[in-house]
Design brief:
- By secondary structure, the protein is α+β, with helices and mostly antiparallel strands.
- The protein is 55% helix and 20% strand.
- A two-stranded antiparallel ribbon has the order 1-2.
- The longest helix has 25 residues.
């Protein structure tokens, strides 16, 4: 958990440095989760925007499957958008 928090802080710093309000991209939420006994417990979590997910992926360890997948996903989506814009604007 501590490792995620470090990445999260790095992503929040990147967001702020880029001129965006981190509160718009990293929203603290509370939600109920099921326990094995059938009971529910409220936990604190963070809802991430797409931009926040991108920042976390960029600050993550690419040797981890989920981070590598996210980095690849964002790279592919960026390339697709570049191709679309090139076709639309005749570049």
């Amino acid at each position: 958990m501590g490792e995620f928090r470090t990445r999260d802080r790095q992503a929040i710093t990147s967001c702020r440095t880029a001129g965006y309000d981190p509160c718009d991209h990293f929203a603290g939420i509370r939600k109920k989760v099921d326990l094995g006994s059938g009971a529910k417990r409220e936990i604190v979590d963070i809802a991430l925007s797409r931009y926040a997910c991108y920042l976390i992926a960029q600050n993550g360890d690419p040797s981890k499957d989920q981070i590598a997948f996210a980095q690849t996903y964002f790279a592919v989506q960026t390339r697709k958008q570049e191709i679309i814009e090139k076709a639309a604007y005749g570049g």
